[in-house]
C-alpha cells in the first residue's frame, strides 16, 4: 500500500510540474511582412521579442496572392506546437487573417499598418476608399511575368518619402534596392474568411502612413473591435522599423 501511495504521489508531482512548465511556455510569434519589404524588416522587433524570451519566426511571404500566401503561412502555423501570435504588416494583414482561420493554436492577431479586410474586400479597394494614400503615383511601371501576371515595385527615388519617411535615408536606400515585389493580382484578390471576426486582434500604425491612409487603418481597427490600437505620431508605413519598441510591446500584450 505504501508503494502505491508513493507511486501516486510521484505521478501527481510529475503532472503538476508538467502543467507548470506548460503554463510557462510563451507563444511563438510569427511575423509576416508585406509588399515592398522582406523578413529583415522585422529585425528590430525580433531583437526585443527574443530578449524577452519569445520564440520568433519571420516568414518569407511569397507576395503572389492572398489565398496561396495564406496557405503558405498556415503551413508554418500548423508546424508550431505552441500557441501562436500571428503578426502581419501591410498586405500581410489579409494573409494572416486567412491563415489564422481554422488554426486552433492562433491565440491572437496583430495588424501592423496592415489591412484587415472583410470577406470580399481587397487591399487595393480599401486603400482607395479613404483619402491620403499616394502609393499609386510612386509605383514603377509593372514588370511583366512569364505567367501573364505583373509585379509591382516602388520607384527607388520615391521609396524613402513614400514608404519609410521616418527611417534614415541611407537605410531607406538599401530597403529600396532590396524591396520584394507584389503582384497586381494579390492586391486585387478578395479576402474570404476574416480571422479577426473570431480571434482577438490588436492594431498599431503611424499617423503619417502614405501607403494605407490612416483613416482606413482606423476604420479597420474599429470594425475588428481591436483590443488596443496604438497610433504612432509621425509614423510612416514601416512603424516596425522606425518604432520597433512600440510594435514589440503591443505584440507582447497580444501574447499574454
TrEMBL record:
All copies of domain AB hydrolase-1, residue ranges: 29-248
Any GO molecular function: hydrolase activity
Assigned keywords, A-Z: Hydrolase, Signal
SUPFAM superfamilies (alphabetical): alpha/beta-Hydrolases
Superkingdom of origin: Bacteria
Pfam families (alphabetical): Abhydrolase_6 (PF12697)
Species: Pseudomonas karstica
Signal peptide positions on this chain: 1-22
Protein name: Alpha/beta fold hydrolase
Amino acid at each position: 500500500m505504501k508503494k502505491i501511495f508513493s507511486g501516486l504521489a510521484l505521478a501527481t508531482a510529475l503532472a503538476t510540474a508538467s502543467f507548470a512548465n506548460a503554463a510557462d511556455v510563451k507563444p511563438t510569434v510569427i511575423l509576416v511582412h508585406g509588399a515592398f519589404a522582406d523578413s529583415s524588416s522585422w529585425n528590430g522587433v525580433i531583437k526585443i521579442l527574443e530578449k524577452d524570451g519569445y520564440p520568433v519566426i519571420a516568414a518569407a511571404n511569397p507576395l503572389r496572392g492572398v489565398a496561396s500566401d495564406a496557405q503558405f503561412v498556415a503551413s508554418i502555423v500548423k508546424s508550431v506546437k505552441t500557441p501562436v501570435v500571428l503578426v502581419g504588416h501591410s498586405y500581410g494583414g489579409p494573409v494572416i487573417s486567412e491563415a489564422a482561420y481554422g488554426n486552433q493554436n492562433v491565440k491572437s492577431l496583430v495588424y501592423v499598418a496592415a489591412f484587415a479586410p472583410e470577406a470580399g474586400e481587397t487591399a487595393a479597394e480599401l486603400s482607395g476608399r479613404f483619402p491620403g494614400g499616394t502609393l499609386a503615383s510612386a509605383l514603377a511601371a509593372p514588370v511583366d511575368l512569364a505567367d501573364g501576371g505583373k509585379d509591382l515595385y516602388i520607384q527607388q527615388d520615391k521609396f524613402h518619402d513614400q514608404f519609410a519617411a521616418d527611417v534614415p535615408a541611407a537605410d531607406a536606400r538599401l530597403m529600396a534596392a532590396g524591396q520584394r515585389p507584389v503582384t497586381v493580382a494579390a492586391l486585387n484578390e478578395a479576402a474570404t474568411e476574416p480571422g479577426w471576426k473570431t480571434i482577438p486582434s490588436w492594431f498599431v500604425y503611424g499617423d503619417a502612413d502614405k501607403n494605407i491612409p490612416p483613416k482606413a487603418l482606423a476604420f479597420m481597427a474599429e470594425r475588428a473591435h481591436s483590443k488596443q490600437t496604438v497610433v504612432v505620431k509621425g509614423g510612416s508605413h514601416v512603424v516596425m522599423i522606425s518604432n520597433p519598441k512600440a510594435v514589440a510591446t503591443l505584440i507582447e500584450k497580444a501574447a499574454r
